[in-house]
């Protein structure tokens, strides 16, 4: 066995200054934005600047059987990129080049560390965009979006990450480089390993490049609709009615009363009507105006108080209320941010279940939802008590409430996680959703990529 | 070892009349629509009518180590479902029920044997459709579409099968049933095994059910544009110009002079101008009219003679010319139908390569292309000489020409197969595209689903 000092010395010998053992850096990579941090301190942070750096790191990791946790911006919400004792934190954040933009083929080739918003700024010059838009898009990277299979606000109309990636370059645990996928619209040569890597949370390899499927910027205006309802169930029913009407909004966000109140306080806005819930809906494209009219009719018929805005800036202001959810929750305490997804028609029933869990477990669960696609973010609020290592862990009664909520989502035909991933926070429920046979099969598949089990051990699959 | 007679007896004992050993049935399952047939005669055809039938068949197959070739309508074009000596042909064609249609959640749950067109007829009553539209849609099944990762005419605008399936139920080689995927718009719980199964051509398990992502029928009119060009390169350049213009047609099909001449002869139409190639383009949705005008301008500027039709029936008549390609090729001899796909901007260069291959190898290669997505179907025409078992195999000089063409597609950033799959016809080139390391990894992944190697052996992966 190599000692930790050996491993760091071997990394330094080939990567020099790119191996970082400063206390601040080692502390920073222990946590993501989930509120959870890893136990202990990793061996080193490697700031890779090239594919070769990643390969060298993995060769040393394999030779010394040292676990590797890949990360970039650290904006994850499931603890999937948290690096702890005995582990190498491999950061691809500095691999942030846009290597190729092809407007004629509607594709771009990028390195994993490019920030989603920076990519889209560069693409806008060509009249193009990459559709995935997680709420973290100003800071999260394309590599992280791919590793988690990120979603966002626009998914019902414009798809998720899996719909927007043609191929990835992947470094395996032993340092070999594979080129997965294709540059073409269609391609069915062999098994679709690109899709397998998307959402695999660092367990199959390190994504060192991606060929992205682009869209042209949507022409025309946008309309933004704000609708207030007496309660969250009425708002959820109204959103289901919009989906059932056949009109496809670009964005349809739901905020319950507790979320709305917290954000209004944070932004020093006038307090909302007590108990009221809100839908914020945006239409785009050539038919934006007509679609907004039709949606306003549906919402009014569902009992909403509706206002339609033609002004893009006013639309952004309305959506900023939704985007302030995370900072607003931080003012209430520590939040365990959950991510269940249910079939769209089950949204009202899922809000009933959340109310039941709040009641039965005596907890507060402010909830927002991407109502257009049935993805909810219940925030379990608690008072954090860091342990001796500074690690925050949700208390048992919060986990009991979360457990109850997860099982309710599964009963409604839903899934544990729509867009954040499993990480460490949801690994104990993974087998409940997959079943023993599928869990075991998935585990054996990861071993074909990583026979020694050095890639992000303990994440996704709890042994 | 069990004798073939033992295996059939065991199948009969549990499946009774659903085990078919009539000479006509055994002969029929040796071939698909590729022009290729398996050597020898399979042991039996099992006509499964339930998930339990599939499980029973696979349990017996595993216990006796008998290979299983899953098939349904037999419309494949790569020999992937051809069953030969010593194999069980497991037909899921009779499992053709539509189990659930949910307009509010835009999903349907179906059995694998339902015919694509029959499904869409049923969905139309709800104002819905399933977008994948292989040219075989009148006869091919949803299960076959999933097994091959089928494409079709509408892919650039409406996606491929992988974009239109939320989950599959899969029976493994040992008879266990797994439920893969989810019913929600978003879902990232664990690895995406649903995408792995799509396009896996019967090597991972038997698809016994699928949860499909539906679309609402597109409102508005369609416009159909026919444009004639002096040669195929000019037509290919015009199609690339349409893509580059930013207008997204629903359909954009290209036919070269040889294809056009053969179809016109078959349909007793007036002969086309010698050497002329044709683009047939359709726009749909609320902006169909404006988009057709813009496309007509681009085509005229590119040197085309352009006619726009507002009449849906006339549009169907124009597309029927394209859809008659397969029967027209049959009038010329036996066709080896290829399926390369290249980035859209490389379409003119790929036609240059086809002309070069024709010249250098002295072969005739009538070619059509889904020009909107860069997917070409070159048809290598030859005189068939069946061997002593009635098996048709393309002669060496045809394979040499095909080899040259495949390598050209790879050089242009393309892929071996856009939508037909690898089957037996392209397995010898698989490693050229994937590389040794990825080929080996894919092979090992299949073994996690099928440790004994009884699922469609010899297909996709040539040992």
UniProtKB/TrEMBL annotation, chains A, B:
PROSITE patterns: FAD_PCMH. Transmembrane segments: none annotated. Keywords: FAD, Flavoprotein, Oxidoreductase. InterPro entries: FAD-bd_oxidored_4_C, FAD-bd_PCMH, FAD-bd_PCMH-like_sf, FAD-bd_PCMH_sub2, FAD-linked_Oxase-like_C, FAD-linked_OxidoTrans_Type4, Oxid_FAD_bind_N, Vanillyl_alc_oxidase_C-sub2. Gene3D superfamilies: 3.30.465.10, 3.30.70.2740, Vanillyl-alcohol Oxidase, Chain A, domain 4. Residues 38-217 form the FAD-binding PCMH-type domain. It comes from the Bacteria. This is FAD-binding protein. It comes from Microbacterium gallinarum. The lineage of its organism: Bacteria, Bacillati, Actinomycetota, Actinomycetes, Micrococcales.
